[in-house]
Automatic annotation (TrEMBL), chain A:
Keywords from the named record: Pyrimidine biosynthesis, Transferase
Presence of keyword Ribosomal protein: no
Organism lineage string: Bacteria, Bacillati, Actinomycetota, Actinomycetes, Streptosporangiales
InterPro entries in UniProt: Asp/Orn_carbamoyltranf_P-bd, Asp/Orn_carbamoylTrfase, Asp/Orn_carbamoylTrfase_sf, Asp_carbamoyltransf, Asp_carbamoyltransf_Asp/Orn-bd
EC assignment: 2.1.3.2
Protein name in the entry: Aspartate carbamoyltransferase
Alphabetized GO MF terms: amino acid binding; aspartate carbamoyltransferase activity
Pfam families listed in its UniProt record: OTCace, OTCace_N
Positions of the Aspartate/ornithine carbamoyltransferase carbamoyl-P binding domain: 3-145
Residues passing through the membrane, by range: none
Function description: Catalyzes the condensation of carbamoyl phosphate and aspartate to form carbamoyl aspartate and inorganic phosphate, the committed step in the de novo pyrimidine nucleotide biosynthesis pathway.
Source taxon at top rank: Bacteria
Family: Belongs to the aspartate/ornithine carbamoyltransferase superfamily. ATCase family.
From TrEMBL, chain B:
PANTHER family: BIFUNCTIONAL PROTEIN PYRR
Xref: Pfam families: Pribosyltran (PF00156)
GO biological process, one term: regulation of DNA-templated transcription
Catalytic activity: UMP + diphosphate = 5-phospho-alpha-D-ribose 1-diphosphate + uracil
Protein function: Also displays a weak uracil phosphoribosyltransferase activity which is not physiologically significant.
Residues spanned by motif PRPP-binding: 103-115
NCBIfam families: PRK05205.1-3, PRK05205.1-5
Keywords: Glycosyltransferase, Transcription, Transcription regulation, Transferase
EC number assigned by the record: 2.4.2.9
The gene coding this protein: pyrR
Ranges of residues in domain Phosphoribosyltransferase: 10-161
Name of this chain's protein: Bifunctional protein PyrR
Molecular-function GO terms, alphabetical: uracil phosphoribosyltransferase activity
TrEMBL record, chain C:
SUPFAM superfamilies the record matches: Composite domain of metallo-dependent hydrolases (SSF51338), Metallo-dependent hydrolases (SSF51556)
Binding sites annotated in the UniProt record for substrate: 58-60, 90, 281, 312
Name this polypeptide is given: Dihydroorotase
GO biological process, one term: purine nucleobase catabolic process
Gene Ontology CC: cytoplasm
EC numbers, comma separated: 3.5.2.3
Residues at which Zn(2+) 2 binds: 150, 177, 230
Binding residues for Zn(2+) 1: 56, 58, 150, 308
Residues forming the catalytic site: 308
Dihydroorotase catalytic domain span: 47-234
Amino acid sequence: MRRHLISAADLSRDDATLILDTADELARVSDRSIKKLPTLRGRTVVNLFFEDSTRTRISFEAAAKRLSADVINFSAKGSSVSKGESLKDTALTLQAMGADAVVIRHSASGAPHRLANWVDGSVVNAGDGTHEHPTQALLDAFTMRRRLGTLEDRRVTIVGDVLHSRVARSNVLLLNTLGAQVTLVAPPTLLPVTVESWPCEVSYDLDAALPKSDVVMMLRVQSERMNAAYFPSAREYSRRYGLDRDRLARMPEDAIVMHPGPMNRGMEIAAEVADCARSTIVEQVANGVTIRMAVLYLLLGGETQ
Amino acid sequence: MSEARNVSRAVLEGPDIQRALTRIAHEIIERTKGAGNIVLLGIPTRGATLAARLGERIAQFGEVKAPVGSLDITMYRDDLRLRPARPLGRTELPPDGIDDRVVVLVDDVLFSGRTVRAALDALNDVGRPKAVQLATLVDRGHRELPIRADYVGKNLPTAKSEQVKVYLEEIDGRDAVVLIKREEDQ
Amino acid sequence: MTDYLIKGARILGGEPRDILIRDGLVAEVGGGLGGAGAAVIDADGLIALPGLVDLHTHLREPGREDAETVESGTRAAALGGFTAVHAMANTSPVADTAGVVEQVWRLGQEAGYCEVRPVGAVTAGLAGRQLAELGAMADSAAGVRVFSDDGMCVSDAVLMRRALEYVKAFDGVIAQHAQESRLTEGAQMNEGAVSGRLGLTGWPAVAEEAIISRDCLLAAHVGSRLHVCHVSTAGSVEIIRWAKSKGWNVTAEVTPHHLLLTDDLVERSPLGSYNPIYKVNPPLRTREDVEALRAGLADGTIDCVATDHAPHPVESKETEWSAAAMGMIGLETALSVVHAAMVETGLLDWAAVADRMSYRPARIGRVAGQGRPVEPGEAANLTLYDPAARTEVDPRGFASKSRNTPYEGLTLPGRVVATFLRGRPTVLEGKLA
Ligand SMILES: [Zn+2]
């Protein structure tokens, strides 16, 4: 493992497998009554969130606390950051506090790369702009592996706003590393113009992709996108790219439905699909804590590099 | 120019190991009054294999089925920061757990005692045994903590600089305990 | 005034000649010249070029003297071999009145390192709504001939048409920063494979090309002069080539950085990923674009190199990418970058470098006494350049107040040894005189 986890592209197949294997063992800890491990005692993990994301922050916080790390939540709202303090000054402050790891969520793509220049500790990307969200991809891969056994040659269809999705970018990279076959499905407006250079297939036709999918991952689509003419209306989007009961029926019987959350029920996913037995949405949340424990352990649980 | 090289010498061969385990199994049955309330917990990787072997022998000699499990202590080690992060071993407790049982921890080599200390911490988080005992195939001395084994296959005097390696059929394809010494050649 | 005798300089890369400078003029050019009382400069191995002329410089004064001043910027220019720079209008206050352009012009005179030719804003306050007093600026002491809303594109087609027409009265030229604003809302870098991977909003080539096409057609329609600023795409080169083939009065410039650097530096560079040192407007493009720009400059489709020297204080670049300011400094590295991109590749010889960096920009800007051949009777604006030197770029040694160079740590060919402004050395032995 490298010092930081900033992009899913940083992970070799061995690295990624080590994280998933570690998470497998840690999942057993989550099942027992004492969930806490002493491993990161005396280590400090800072959650530096420039964007509101209670669910991701809580997930990282729970992971760090279960490993006995000291956790400092540094929310940019209402702090010196919102009064114009630069990312660099914030980084220097964290550095002075002796942060062993900084978990950063930022609306600017690449902010974690910049932060890594200014702190000695490990930087963990908890979502940067429209770039990446590697721990989400790891927890998705973990969830898939637990349901499907392996990712090798599994067909994963990712549907929705790929253009603005950090989840999609990280998933395409990681799933490709782990040997899965990825197909992106979206209206052409919501795909990057050079998507053909990505290591995946691309389709505009959800119905054609569904029968060939072991996993269908629905991405959140913000209805504001229609104001920027990415699609005409929520209704049309949902009709062409939403996952409803009829489409679920077109998937192979053992295929699973995933969503990174938060969901727009009725937009990209119908409520009855979200809540069905083939949906892993609740598992994904639980697996999020486990995979983040694995990442923090592997970054901080050894010698300081 | 002086050049260092490793010189290794087998101190236990396959039959010696078999005999040592048989003896330990008998001692466990005796000391725990029939082994009816024990759980064997091996410390991965080789301690877990040894625990399984001891379980078979206890079933054979004592005619009781002693539950066997494994206890990974990686997350409890006090020397994590000396090496890159290690992959985790498996913790697998018997279905009935360890509460009110006599837990016999099984490890391949007893050295500083730090592994056992970590194992005691780990045990604490997974249940409340009635008593904890320790079985080891080799005790090579040099303790750094007030810890001693209840069952020892072989006491092996070593220099601190030497290395003891245990090979087991199930993992390594052969049974042996090897002492590795670094020698300076002229 | 001291006379100077330059011994053995290769004018435009030709055979060694002596150049005698007297009373601000090139007095004599020839072999074995003797100049009684003249200071002798040994120019063995050096190339003599006409003083370089930059059509596109941000000197930041008035308003952002923390980033650059007329004095610091013209010192940087002199060290880069320039004898004239065009100071862009996006200052604070904007250079949209005779008062501001005269102030900038006067600051240039006082500093004395370079001829400073102010560029006037096309529209009042660069707001794109109503024409600035173009005539007043033209008639002022600054004698403005180049007008630009640089940084902002004159988007309104009617306003652009009127501006093109209006400046005909005083032989002006509109220098357009071609950027369709709706297509570049929130844009961060060239739209392509790299922006797609990095999740940075793309800046499509078509946003530049669409405006250039429209402006060429407008310029043809009203029979006026159009100058296209910092061309950055292969498509733009094609469009300009086509416009020129029609005989239309269109000229264009390219920056040194667009001749050398590509957008993949944003993803992977020795200076780090997402390093805003590479954030610039227009953005760095692809290898294919760079090749097309070089070819365009070589065949004359693109008339000249202009630095778009854009100083920014450190804190404007030590940020996350999207928060960073756009622009890079370039005066002190321009000739070396052109040397690397165009001369070492065999695309231009030194005579052509003189054409693209001195003659043609001076002609476009209507700068009298600049961009003239090194011949007896001409104003002694010239640059001595050592083509054999190789220098690792170290921004700490720059005269510019800012350090935002993308070339830090890079070894570039050549070195400016001396610069003469109307017979007076501004740089000698590579240092400010
Ligand atoms: Zn511009």
